[in-house]
Amino acid sequence: MTPGAERHARGHLRHRLIALLPVLGLAMAACVPAGEPRELSGQVVAERPQPAGVGGAPPEEGGEAVDDDCDATASLEPDGTEIPEGSTMAKIRDRGHLVAGVDQNTFLFGFHNPATGQLEGFDIDIAREIAGAVLGDRDRVRFHTITSAERIPALREGDVDIVVRTMTVNCARRENIEFSSVYFEAGQRVLVPKASDVTGLDDLAGQRVCAAEGSTSLRNIAEAAPEPVSVPNWSDCLVMLQQRQVEAVSTDDTILAGMAEQDPTTEVVGEPFTEEPYAIGIPPGDEDMVRYVNAVLEDVRDDRWDELYDRWIEPVLGGASPPEARYR
Amino acid sequence: MTTPGGSWNTDADGSGEPTRTPGYRAWISGLVELAQQAFRRLTVSAARTPGRLSMIAAGLVTLTLLVGLVSTVMAQGKKDAVDGLLEHREPVTAEAQRVYSALSDAEATAAAALLAEESETERLRERYEDSIAQAGASLAKASASAQDVPAAAEQVDIIGQQLPVYTGLVETARANDRQGFPVGASYLQEASELMRSAILPAAEELYELETDRLAEQQRDARSVPVFTALLALGLVAALLATQRYLRRRTNRVLNPGLVVATVAVLVGLLWTSVALVVHGVQVGSGQRDGTEQADRLVSTRIVALQARADQTMSLVARGDGDRHTEGFSKLSRQLGGSDGAGGLLGEVREQAAGGPAEELVNEAIENSESWRRADERIREHSDEGDYGAAVELAISGDDEGAAQAFHALDDNLSQAIAEGRQDFVDSTTTASRALHALPQGLAVLSVVAALGITVGVGERLREYR
């Protein structure tokens, strides 16, 4: 090999070595671990919102067993629809309007119709019947919307003349307020998504079941196996069911029917496992009012009851007849 | 290639044994010797006047250029800081404020839109949509700056995650409401709860963090540059001392070069002082009458918005509205005190007295009074169970209604906030202009001073040759 050729070959080799450098660099880069990709926000999990004031099991009522020995549904005998001077009814008539404590969130019974801006429903119409009797005008009623838990305080403090708000008569309540005769018979059942296998409260052991705070339904749930979830209003139960935060809602079939009407993917299942006789709540001491309201309800049973039932309830729960009035 | 006394390379014969150590030592000792020689020469020459003079000149020139550099950098820093306030920090704070108020507005409007009759709904719906869009856009702008501060970034995260959930709930509420389903009201209450318990607190925190950052940057911009000032005063003292020394040595009263240098330095000092005083006063005034006033107004406006949300929600949540009724009376006391002219509005009035926003604030106080009167009537209707009249009074735009009074209040406060921001921009722009050409001027002056020193001392030196 000539010196020139040798130099040439060496130069060639050097070029090759230089060309190898980046390859070496790359090889080194590949051998040293590169670490993880940098995450700026990490894995984010959605937090589901829930209605204000969600709670759990109801507080024990006074610590003693509920007294079921009384004849809860027996009210005072009606005494005609005359309004004597100085009576509770006369005061209402002089005031010019009846004040009724009602619900605005229970579809079919007491709800706010956004199209008309008015409160509507079976309970609302019953309250209008009373107003029509006392004042001669079904529209002369002012509705005071209250929650389930506010029903008894509102009556005891005299904020309202009557409460017509899916209110079950029972002995414990009777100790605090007066009740009219029963104007509607409901029973507690269970509302679940149609896709659910649940057929009654027994299938819901250990699962979250929603009811309004202060309601008898909540206590019934707490006594059965499920874990109770309480909310301020019944509608909040539907919100929680739709958000899959509870597995079921359990209360009176009337309220559940209203929910099923609002969400066609849910249904009311199981047989009624309680009797929930609804009566009008009246402030303690207003016995004249109790007798008067019972007289009005007698007329309603004979006349308007079927019409109101057909308008609000029949399409969902099927036919029924007015409950028998019982007096002591 | 070899160096005397040793070699940095391995030997050419390839034996591989480096002979570095002796060479290294020789090199070090050579260097030390060089330094010693230089020091000896310096002390010798310093003992004689010409040598001392050239050393003084070198020191003075170095000090002058150093002062020039430091003060130019300082002046440029001040200018950048004040321009940063105008261009970046204040606008970002305003975006954070917009996030907060747009969200509060959305909450207040969503409830009103649900309550209103068909004709009103369209207008309110539009306002709600605009508020949400505004909140989203402002959040995007504010989030870029919030990333520097972990606490702020966390708030942006919360808002970013929850706002879509909130709007989803409002739409669910609306869809149900349009079908006449009462569950709509429940969804709206849930949305309102989410807004109040998670989103608004985050927005408030974000706004407060940004406001603090703005205030801090304003304080920084106003701070007195003590180090630079001491350095400059030291330079003046050195120049005067040199002239006194020269006068004694040469019996000449004035050295024109040094006089020029001294004048240049004093001009620079005076200019900087005046510019910084004007700048500091203007930045301070922009902070006091501008951003701080706007901040107080923003708090006031947000309290008003939240009170409005409570007012409308109390009607949506009929039967369960006590929480909101109490919320309204608490917020309205906070807003106007016990007599309507105290509370936040009273503070704002005091602050705005004599300023451009005075009239707006006075009007806002009147609006707040009639709003409160309207609410009393809404409560009366509501307590009597006359729900329709209560809604009518709360939502409709007639002169006696709550909506009219609230919107007038909101508009007046918004305008007053805009006035506050304008005040900030005016004052801070003046502050920025006060520093106009200062960095460049200081650089030129320091070069002039350095030349003056060189020429002045050089003349004296020539006399010794």
Describe this structure in words.
The complex is a heterodimer of chains A (328) and B (465). Chain A has 328 residues and is α/β, with parallel strands linked by helices. Chain A has a single domain, classed as D-Maltodextrin-Binding Protein, domain 2, CATH 3.40.190.10. Chain A contains eleven helices and 13 strands. The model of chain A has no long low-confidence stretch (mean pLDDT 84). Helix content of chain B is 85%, strand content 0%. Chain B is mainly α and 465 residues long. Chain B has 13 helices and no strands.
At a glance:
The complex is a heterodimer of chains A (328) and B (465). Chain A has 328 residues and is α/β, with parallel strands linked by helices.
Element order of chain B: H for helix, E for strand: HHHHHHHHHHHHH
Q: State the CATH topology of chain A.
A: D-Maltodextrin-Binding Protein, domain 2
Structural class of chain A: alpha/beta
Instruction: Give the integer mean of the pLDDT values of chain B.
Output: 87
**CATH class of chain A, please?**
Alpha Beta
What gyration radius of chain A follows from the Cα positions, in whole Å? Answer: 34 Å
Helix run count of chain B: 13
Radius of gyration of chain B: 36 Å
Structural class of chain B: mainly alpha
Q: Biggest interface between protein chains, with counts per chain?
A: A-B, 44 and 37 residues
> Please, how many helices of chain A?
11
Overall mean pLDDT of chain A stands at 84
